[in-house]
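Lab intake sheet, docking and co-folding queue.

SAMPLE TYPE: protein with bound small molecule
LIGAND NAME: flavin-adenine dinucleotide
LIGAND FORMAT: SMILES
REQUESTED OUTPUT: full 3D complex as structure tokens
PRIORITY: normal
SUBMITTED BY: R.K., bench team

The fields below were copied directly from the construct record.
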Amino acid sequence: MARGGGVLVAGAGVAGVTAARALRARGHAVTLLDPGPLPHPLAASTDVSKAVRLEYGADGAYTALGERALEGWRRFNADEGERFFHETGVLFLRRGPMVPGGFEHDSHTTLVARGHRPERLDHAGLGARFPAWGGGGYTDGFFHALGGWVESGRALARWIARASREGVALREGASLARVEDGDGASVTVALRDGQRLTGDSLVLALGAWTPWYLTALAPALRSTGHPVFHLRPREPERFTGERFPVFGAAIAETGWYGFPLHPTAGVVKIARHGVGRAMHPEDPARAVTDEERAALGEFLAGSLPWLADAAVVSTRVCLYCDTHDGHFWIDRDPSRPRVVVAAGDSGHGYKFAPVLGDWIADVVEGAPAEPRWRWRPEVTAGRTEEAARRVDDGG
Ligand SMILES: Cc1cc2nc3c(=O)[nH]c(=O)nc-3n(C[C@H](O)[C@H](O)[C@H](O)COP(=O)(O)OP(=O)(O)OC[C@H]3O[C@@H](n4cnc5c(N)ncnc54)[C@H](O)[C@@H]3O)c2cc1C
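RESULT FIELD (auto-filled):
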């Protein structure tokens, strides 16, 4: 048994790696475990891109957190001397007028109330400014110059390398099997290879694997799969960032959102922020279905005719660790006070990476959880409060 002391962190996705770095920066000895290879190919964090938006409908609290994260992304680019975060701005569109209570209207109102200046767009303005949308029948919405997208997998790989240089003991290949205790002076975990590690605290940052390890939380946390498509457009110049920024196409009703042409991969990513399908992260049937492909075809034909005949060069099913209310889960296990669970991303956590690690480290160091991210096993049903999320899967 290795009596390392310090903090054990299980899971090297964006939650685990940023927590490990924040705790290390505060002087803790930190051991980071992950079965690897890193970045793990099945991890939600490992993707070509993730959107960074301030738009959360009427929920000014997430918009405020997004503003802090945005500063962090710009600093990250500056510190690294290269661009991981592409500030293309974001476009949120709808067919028909923006209405109170709707994601676009309420986001626009929240942004203006916070001093931002989103640019309202009608059909003509949209077609003139962002020609790929000309034939899609969208008649209202706005472009907001703040925000864009980040090369998530590449950023994660950079943070993992930095964590090692900063003194985080990286145990790639080490897989947590179970937590043995954690209510006394220390916490011990057993690894799949039979080893056991002991530390002062444990952070479980297992993403969509969480409900499969903490089965008592299974009613409150679910792993759901969501389709992602990578398309190679016939006319890539139509989809570069300044002409085709990150978008949501009536996202709260349709779930559809997407990204500009990826500068190196040469693909346009389109995905759906919807209900998803319940599945285990390592489910062999983790693949996009014919229905999901057909739904994409229908969306493109109706919204983005310039992409309707683009080749789908790759697909992926990526998993959320879903809470029923759509809020994160970052809190101490009341029955094992040396164990902190950082999960519940509900498909919208990556953008907060620049500030996420400190949120988790605060709880490890004894700070109370954010009320909406508290330990809440009683919340086993209900409608998501994440305003951009589509809630019914009526096809
Ligand atoms: C399709 C899709 C699109 C998304 N788009 C966006 C977006 O545009 N913007 C945004 O902000 N967010 C987005 N998200 C959400 C974002 O990806 C997540 O919030 C974030 O990546 C979750 O990170 P994580 O570290 O919690 O989990 P993960 O990245 O999944 O990492 C979990 C880690 O746990 C490890 N692990 C598993 N089992 C064990 C074990 N036994 N022992 C040790 N380690 C283990 C895994 O190997 C993995 O590395 C999206 C998510 C999906 C699925």
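REVIEWER NOTE: The chain has a mean pLDDT of 95.
SIGN-OFF: pending second check by T.M.
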